[in-house]
Amino acid sequence: MMMSLRFPFLFSQPTNLPGSGSSSQNNHRTTPRPRFSATFAAATAASIGAAAAAGVAVVSQNPNHPFFQHAANLLLPNSSSLLWASVSLADGSAPVVEPKSGVSFPAVLGSSLTLLGVGLRKKSILGLKNIDVYAFGVYANGDDVKKFLSEKYGNLSAFELKNSKDFNNDLMEADISMTVRLQIVYSKLSIKSIRSAYEESVGSRLQKFSGSDNKELLQRFTSQFKDEYKLPRGSLVELSKEPGYVLKTIIDGKEMGSIESKLLCRSILDLYIGEDPFDRRAKDDVDLNVASLLQQK
What we know:
One of its GO terms (cellular component) is chloroplast stroma. The chain is of the alpha+beta class.
C-alpha cells in the first residue's frame, strides 16, 4: 500500500500529565495527532545539524511542543503547513468527538463544509455550578476560505495567522459559508432558556459591532426559537451563514427562518471564534485549521 504525505487537520486533545495514572481507555482522543516520521526527523537532522536533531527527536511525537513550533516558524516561516504534515493512510473523513461531552461531529457537513473545530458551551448556575449546555462544531467552506483569504494571508505562517487580529476579523467578515452546529447535552434545557441566552449574548455583540442595541434585529432572530419546540438531549441546532450574509436557523432538520444581515452573521460567529469565545480551545483549533487550508495548494 502506498503511503502519502498528507495535511490532516488538528483538533485539541485533553492533556494527560505524566504519572496521572490515566489509561488509554480514558484518553478521549478522536483523531490521532499527526506524528512526524523518522524520515522527517532524519531530513531535519541533515539540514540543521546534529545538535538541533537531538531537540527534534525529543519533540517529534508532539508537534505542538513549544521547541518544535518555535524552530519550525524560525527555520520555515512561510511553510507552516509542515506543522500538520504527517505520513498518513487516513482519508480524514472520520468523525471528531468533543472530548468532554462525547458528542461526535461529522468531518464534512453537507457536500462542502469542513469541520474546523469542536467545543463545549458551559453555563454557570448561581455562580456555584457549571453545567454543560451543548457541544458545538464550527464548519466552513474550504473553497470560500481560499477565495476570500488566500491573497492576503496565503503566504503567512500559522504562527503569524494565529496571532493576527485582522485575520480573525476577516474570517468572520468575509462572505464565507460557515455553519455552527450545536448538539444539546443538558437534558433539562428548555428552548426558552436558549432564547434568553441568545438575547443576552447576541444582543451584546450587536451592540459591540454596531454601537446600537438593534432590538428589532435581535427579536427577529430570537423569535425563531419558539416555545412549542422542544430541545431534549441530542437535539441539533444549526446556525448557517449562507452566501450573501443570510443566517439560516435549523432545529432538528426543520428550517425556522432566515435573516439577511451581515451584522447578525458576524455577531453569531463572534460567540464561537471571536476574541472572547465560549470555548477558547475550539477557537484555537479553527484558527490553526483555517491556516492549514490556506497552505494547501
